[in-house]
Amino acid sequence: MTDRDDEFDAPEFDAPEFDAAEDHLAERLADVDDELADQRAAALRTGLDDYELDDEDLELLEQAEFGDDGVTYLPALPVIAIVGRPNVGKSALVNRILGRREAVVEDTPGVTRDRVSYKGEWMDRRFTLVDTGGWEPDAKGIDASVAAQAEVAIDLSDVVLFVVDAMVGATATDEHVVRLLRKAQKPVFLVANKIDDPRQEPEIHALWNLGLDQPYAVSALHGRGVADLLDEVFKVLPETSAVAKQEIGGPRRVAILGRPNVGKSSLLNKAAGEERVVVNELAGTTRDPVDEQIELGGKVWRFVDTAGIRRRVHLQHGADFYASLRTQAALEKAEVAVVLLDVTQPISEQDVRIIELVLESGRALVLAYNKWDQLDEDRRRYLEREIEQDLHHVSWAPRVNISAKTGRHLEKLVPALELALESWDTRVPTGKFNAFLAELTQAHPHPVRGGRQPRILFGTQVSNRPPTFVLFTTGFLDPAYRRFIQRRLREIYGFQGSPIVVNMRIRERRERKR
């Protein structure tokens, strides 16, 4: 192995001398004939048949069709959410429904702390199953925090399975979640868990008092009654999700994020042209997301003012903990996030963490530098240095300099939002993408690792919002090489304001039958 191979992450791929090569790559791709590119991609796809592919691989490849936009999309799978208070057996039920051990199960409350999605199948119908948690042992206002997690899961589901420990009966926390379920107006199945023996079934009669219709007696641990429950669930579960698919044609949803007192509510008020939300110098005035439909730049938008994120969620207490959960829920429902940064204050770890939250959610991103009218020359020099140092990883995000209080340059926000959303929606045709990969790997092949050089067999964009690409390879691609591919994608196709996801699937060649 050469020294050059060891120094893969060296600046050789970012050096100025490669600018001419990048321009040449762009010109070559522009001249690629679409029909020839599709034919070559189809040949590469056929070559994948010589490699070991699983069912999920085949499903992804089914989505790669060669046509006008290069990608077609399967209908969004219906979503089933499992909610309930801690230690009632939600994760055990998830594993039983999936038929495999996916969720961690322990006889301890609060093991599951996040909403986790799994793909499942029942009687030839595929669906998404969401396991929920969110209970923190040190958080105050525990009923509010559990209900907040349940509310998020309910909003993002088509059917809800509400799990109750039948041997304990209904508790005050269960009744609190029931109130949320009634407001949601979605199909709800009351699951009476831990009925391990037919002699225990009379225990479920008391659950009728919750007012959620018939309780279904099951044992997640032993599987008793789960099949009957799923048969009833799939009678009302839609073929295509009404919540997982993105709405097209309605007002685009914009979440306004930032740390407390950065000017989020002021921005919403100025964009609306009236006092829609309370503005106060006291940090943390906004507790719940405020959803408003606003006309800006000749278009209708749906702006969501969110609570300021103070610190890590698991360290928060009471109302702050609840507000942070609601902020994350608002972000999940949004399409683009505007992160406000106070230019009069140094860029903090908290600002960077909020941006990371947006990146993890896969939403489009616009950076709005607020209070620009208060910026002096000395602070401006420090600010540019902080941006270069702390926000280099999101240099692709559109930047607008505004004053939420006075409305200065607020009109520049609309082109930035449109650019970010256009990138978020972008689809690269499969033929063009494979031509891009061929040109790229020919000019800059992956270095040899352990005596082997990984090759990219085939690539396809499996989804947009955000643009997500899958590479079928013969070996592991270094993270630096995947970042290199992302940078070249941005240089050729733009993607300004949108994160890009590049995943890989390492596949071995099939053994030849003798």
Q: What order do the helices and strands come in, and which of them pair?
A:
Layout: H1 3-6, H2 19-31, H3 34-47, H4 55-62, E1 79-83, H5 90-98, E2 116-122, E3 125-131, H6 142-155, E4 159-165, H7 172-184, E5 188-193, E6 215-217, H8 226-236, E7 252-257, H9 264-272, E8 290-296, E9 299-305, H10 318-333, E10 336-342, H11 349-361, E11 364-370, H12 377-390, E12 399-401, H13 413-425, H14 430-443, E13 456-463, E14 468-473, H15 479-493, E15 501-506
Parallel strand pairs: 1-3, 1-4, 4-5, 5-6, 7-9, 7-10, 10-11, 11-12, 14-15
Antiparallel strand pairs: 2-3, 8-9, 13-14
Notes on the structure:
A hairpin with a 2-residue loop joins strand 2 and strand 3 (125-131). Helix 6 packs parallel to helix 7. Helix content is 35%, strand content 18%. The strands form three sheets. A six-stranded mixed β-sheet has the order 2-3-1-4-5-6, sandwiched between helices. It contains 15 helices and 15 strands. It folds into three domains: 3-71 and 427-506, 2-Layer Sandwich (GMP Synthetase, Chain A, domain 3), CATH 3.30.300.20; 79-236, Rossmann fold (3-Layer(aba) Sandwich); 252-410, 3-Layer(aba) Sandwich (Rossmann fold). The protein is flat and about 75 Å long. By secondary structure, the chain is α/β, with parallel strands linked by helices. The protein has helices at residues 3-6, 19-31, 34-47, 55-62, 90-98, 142-155, 172-184, 226-236, 264-272, 318-333, 349-361, 377-390, 413-425, 430-443, 479-493, and strands at residues 79-83, 116-122, 125-131, 159-165, 188-193, 215-217, 252-257, 290-296, 299-305, 336-342, 364-370, 399-401, 456-463, 468-473, 501-506.
